[in-house]
Amino acid sequence: MPTIEPSNVVTLVIQHQVRPGCLPAYEAWLKRALAAAEQQPGHLGVNVIRADGQGDAFTTVLRFAEGWQLDEWIASDRRRLLIDEVLPLLEGGDQIQVSRDHEFWFTPEQAQAQAPQPPKWKQAVLTYLVICPLTMLIPLLWQPLFQQYPALGGVVPSNLLITLCIVVPVVFWIMPVVTRCCAGWLSAR
Fold first, then answer.
1. Exposed, middle or buried, 131 (CB in 10 Å: 0-12/13-18/19+)?
2. Cα atoms found within 13 Å of the Cα of residue 177, Cβ hemisphere only
């Protein structure tokens, strides 16, 4: 039986404080930098969080499939040139942190000081809106199999299968997309 490898996904959290009057130049630079990162092998996605939704503090979260792919991006000449270009626009320089943890849904722990977590009630509402439809749909999808194989339809096996079919997509695919789409609402006070 093949073993399942743990996720090797790594996350790069970048914090930038833009100097007054430099926001348009920074935003143009950010678009170019994100396009360059997307071309890097192993790039899985990016989220950009503004501290108050419209301010000059940015947290950029990039995910890569493997640590060595992220390391190559960090050490690349392309990124070095981009950072040299943006440094005059920043207060405090280019602050980066690498997280080897699995995907996270809301704000990464390293970014909490500058980009606070959304209120718990917003996290609960968003999580409920994602999970509730799945708890109604997934059991219906499994029902024909449970009828054909009654042993799978027992309380424990059926709950294990249904929960697995909800948790895995929510953690790895649905919540990262939903939180990116709802970032403005999550960060609005």
1. middle
2. 6
Residue among 84, 42, 97, 46 at smallest CA distance from 66 = 42
Nearest by Cα to 8 from 69, 67, 70 = 67
Strand order across the beta sheet in which 10-18 lies: 43-50, 57-64, 10-18, 90-99
Closest CA to 9 of 61, 53, 52, 67: 67
Give pTM, 2 decimals: 0.52
Q: Is the dihedral of CA 28, 12, 63, 183 positive or negative?
A: negative
Amino acid 116: pLDDT: 59
pLDDT for 109 equals 45
Residue range 111-164, pLDDT digits in tens: 444 455 678 888 889 988 999 999 999 999 999 999 999 998 888 888 888 988
- Which helix (H) or strand (E) element contains residue 132? helix 120-148
